[in-house]
Amino acid sequence: MKAFIATALLAAASGATATRVAYALPYGSKDTRLTDTSCGSGTNGLTTKYGWQTIGDIPAKYVGGASDINKYNSDQCGNCYRIDYNSKTVYMLAIDFAGNGLNIAQGGLDELTNGNAYNLGTIDATVTKVDTTFCLTGH
User: Which residues form a coiled coil (predicted)?
Assistant: First the structure.
């Protein structure tokens, strides 16, 4: 019981929360245009800030949607999330809206689940918002 409480306190102190993570196929296509996402243009848009036109232009291993992004041109566009599941970690750059939790490219969920994204569909993972450099350095 003490170990459980210590783990819960550590997770709360770090800002980590159990979050639903699913995969969405468009985030795995390098040709997907950012103008087709919530974070393409506008003052907070990733095309405006960085000049990226497609997912393939983004120097992040994985991109996806986050429920923090609740509207077009959200100031949450470009947040980076650390996703931990069964001793595996991936980082995802938020480029779009997600209704509940996070949606990531299938490759990201496959990496977390040993190739079982399709079979599982969704997982409950520990998610922590981290500095954007974690996503933009190829993690």
Answer: none
Instruction: Please report whether residue 88 resides in a domain.
Output: yes
Q: What does DSSP assign to residue 31?
A: T
Find out whether 135 and 35 touch, Cβ atoms under 8 Å. no
pTM: 0.86
DSSP category for residue 56: G
If we measure between CA atoms, which residue out of 110, 15, 119 comes closest to residue 68? 15
Query: Which structural domain, as residue segments, surrounds residue 76?
Result: 16-136
Helices (H), the chain: 2-14, 46-50, 106-113, 117-120, 133-136
Question: What CATH number did the domain enclosing 59 receive?
Answer: 2.40.40.10
pLDDT, tens digit, for every residue of 47-81? 999 999 999 999 999 999 999 999 999 999 999 99
Burial-class residue 99 by CB neighbours within 10 Å (0-12, 13-18, 19+): exposed
What local confidence, expressed as pLDDT, does residue 8 receive? Answer: 37
Question: What's the CA gap between 19 and 90, in Å, rounded?
Answer: 14
Contact yes or no for 40/34 (Cβ under 8 A): yes
